[in-house]
């Protein structure tokens, strides 16, 4: 064998150790996880749609996720909202909800190039009423697609039917989005793996097809406010995994509740504002997992079954505005997790069950507008978490419970239009410092005990004491700084109005919308405030105002010439402002004008003689 030259051997032996030394001391660089073509697609999408100053961003205060997507950052798998497959590095999940995306989208959108996507969320953006791109059907690995509240319109593309792996589809809150071709029937025939379907606030305008009952994996079905028609199939209530059903806000579809088997998995059922009718079945008590039940503004009738007491998981029960009759079952007192109970506007009779006072988690109790009799249970004052209590428009008698002040969280108390009697202890009621609205009108109180002179409720905006046998203005009203609505009608109040009853201190500009009322408003009196800016221009040619008093403010500018259209005007006072104008001789045609006060402004120029003899005839 031929021997290697000695000098070459030295070089070889010298190089080899150096090579190993360098590999041991220099850091190894890991390969980029993100595929370059997908990184480019994401950056292209950002450039096309991201707008941190868009209206949707400003309106909702969204935090723009895409600001973290940097050109110099090679690994897109670390970007906010992006998840990748750990093995292959492909983008599998993209959550761009609330990301300040703005502008029309089309089939060439670069996101379509992310062929391995399994989850895509573009909710709460603004795609400017463009159509869902038909190329969405190329993302055949999608399991979840959420396009809710993103201003899409037009027909849902038939290519969605290619997404046969979908388990979750949310197209809700896109009011101009239509489901016609494909229809809902075709949609569910192709997307047989659906577990969650949400079409709320889209335009379905068709009956719910029977084939929906074939979606054996369905756990939530939301079809609220989507113009449903026809008869709703009761077989859907019996889907083996269905936990949430929301059909609310569809006044046309009719149906009834079926008999429920024991163990039915439904947790939330909303049928409010529908045409459902019939009685509530006794088997309702078999819905042991039900936590929310809403049939508000439907057509259910008959008694509330006592089996409702079996629904011990209920936190919200709303039976408002139906035709339910009979007594309130005492078994409701078993629903100790209830925080909201509304039985208002029905035909319920009998007394308020004392068992309701066991519901110590209640924050809202509404029994308004029924035919309830008897006294308000004294134990109701145990419901210390109540913020809303309305027992109005019933036939309740007796006094208001003495310990009503225990309900210290109340912001609404409605007891009007009953037959309550005895002494009205306003000194006790007005210890409820969180009260915003207090309605006590139309009862039969024999006397009233007022609170102390300086009692002030910091949030009180509505006070109703009509038909309450008042003989004078309650002095405590003078200390309520936020009162906006006061009803003292049909009392026995007489004598002069005290000065404090007429003191305001409004500030800001006169709302321009007031000018839209000029064809119906007769008196506009805003004097003695801190209003500034211009007197609003009247928007209608017809003006019915006969009195305007805006004196003692800080109004500026000139008088609007549209006042000449107020042909019934008798009194105009703009004194003590900062009006800059010449004498309004153009008002001379106002035949009925008797009082014109312009003093303490900045009028200038000559007044001059009237151009015609019939100017200001009654001034």
Can you offer a commentary on this structure?
This protein has an 18-stranded mixed β-sheet, with no helix packed on it. It has a six-stranded parallel β-sheet with strand order 11-13-15-17-19-21, with no helix packed on it. A four-stranded parallel β-sheet has the order 31-33-35-37, with no helix packed on it. A hairpin with a 6-residue loop joins strand 1 (82-84) and strand 2. The longest helix has 20 residues, at 6-25. The protein is 8% helix and 21% strand. It has 619 residues and is mainly beta. It has five helices and 38 strands. The chain has a domain at 507-604: Ribonuclease Inhibitor (Leucine-rich repeat, LRR (right-handed beta-alpha superhelix)), CATH 3.80.10. The protein starts with 5 loop residues before the first helix and ends in a 15-residue tail after the last strand. It is a single-pass type I membrane protein. Keywords: Glycoprotein, Leucine-rich repeat, Membrane, Receptor, Repeat, Signal, Transmembrane, Transmembrane helix. Residues 35-85 form the Leucine-rich repeat-containing N-terminal plant-type domain.
């Amino acid at each position: 064998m031929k021997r290697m030259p000695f000098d070459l051997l030295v070089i070889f032996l010298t190089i080899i150790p150096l090579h190993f030394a360098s590999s041991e001391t220099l850091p190894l660089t890991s390969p980029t996880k993100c595929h370059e073509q997908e990184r480019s697609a994401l950056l292209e999408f950002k450039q096309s749609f991201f707008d941190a100053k868009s209206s949707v961003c400003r309106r909702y205060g969204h935090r723009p996720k895409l600001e973290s997507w940097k050109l110099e950052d090679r690994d897109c798998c670390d970007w906010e909202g992006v998840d990748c497959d750990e093995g292959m590095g492909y983008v599998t999940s993209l959550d761009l909800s609330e990301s300040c995306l703005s502008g029309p989208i089309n089939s060439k959108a670069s996101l379509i190039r992310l062929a391995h996507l399994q989850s895509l969320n573009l909710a709460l953006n603004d795609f400017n009423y463009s159509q869902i791109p038909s190329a969405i059907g190329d993302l055949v690995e999608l399991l979840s697609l959420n396009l809710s509240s993103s201003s899409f319109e037009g027909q849902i593309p038939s290519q969605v039917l290619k997404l046969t792996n979908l388990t979750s589809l949310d197209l809700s809150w896109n009011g101009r989005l239509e489901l016609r071709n494909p229809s809902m029937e075709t949609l569910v025939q192709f997307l047989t793996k659906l577990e969650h379907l949400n079409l709320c606030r889209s335009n379905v305008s068709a009956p719910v097809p029977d084939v929906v009952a074939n979606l054996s994996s369905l756990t939530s079905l939301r079809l609220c406010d989507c113009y449903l028609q026809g008869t709703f199939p009761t077989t859907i209530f019996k889907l083996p995994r269905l936990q949430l059903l929301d059909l609310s806000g569809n006044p046309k579809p009719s149906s009834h509740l079926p008999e429920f088997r024991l163990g039915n998995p439904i947790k939330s059922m909303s049928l409010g504002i529908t045409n459902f009718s019939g009685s509530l079945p006794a088997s309702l008590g078999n819905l042991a997992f039900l936590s929310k039940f809403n049939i508000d503004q439907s057509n259910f009738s008959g008694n509330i079954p006592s089996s409702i007491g079996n629904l011990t998981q209920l936190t919200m029960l709303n039976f408002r505005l139906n035709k339910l009759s009979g007594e309130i079952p005492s078994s409701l007192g078993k629903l100790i997790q209830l925080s909201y109970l509304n039985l208002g506007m029905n035909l319920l009779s009998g007394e308020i069950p004392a068992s309701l006072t066991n519901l110590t988690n209640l924050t809202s109790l509404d029994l308004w507008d029924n035919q309830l009799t008897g006294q308000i249970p004294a134990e109701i004052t145990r419901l210390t978490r109540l913020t809303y209590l309305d027992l109005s428009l019933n036939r309740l008698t007796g006094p208001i419970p003495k310990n009503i002040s225990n309900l210290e969280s109340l912001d609404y108390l409605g007891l009007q239009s009953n037959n309550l009697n005895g002494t009205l202890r306003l000194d006790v009621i007005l210890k409820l410092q969180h009260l915003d609205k207090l309605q006590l009108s139309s009862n039969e109180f024999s006397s009233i005990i007022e609170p102390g002179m300086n009692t002030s409720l910091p949030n009180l905006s509505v006070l109703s004491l009509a038909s309450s046998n008042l003989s004078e203005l309650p002095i405590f009203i003078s200390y309520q700084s936020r009162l906006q609505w006061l009803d003292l009608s049909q009392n026995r109040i007489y004598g002069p109005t005290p000065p404090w009853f007429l003191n305001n201190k409004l500030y800001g500009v006169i709302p321009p919308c007031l000018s839209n009322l000029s064809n119906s408003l007769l008196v506009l009196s805003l004097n003695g405030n801190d209003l500034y800016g211009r007197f609003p221009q009247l928007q209608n040619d017809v003006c019915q105002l006969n009195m305007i008093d805006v004196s003692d403010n800080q109004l500026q500018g000139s008088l609007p010439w549209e006042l000449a259209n107020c042909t019934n005007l008798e009194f105009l006072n703009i004194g003590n402002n900062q009006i800059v104008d010449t004498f309004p001789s153009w008002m001379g045609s106002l035949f009925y004008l008797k009082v014109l006060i312009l003093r303490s402004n900045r009028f200038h120029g000559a007044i001059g003689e009237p151009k015609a003899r019939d100017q200001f005839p009654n001034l």
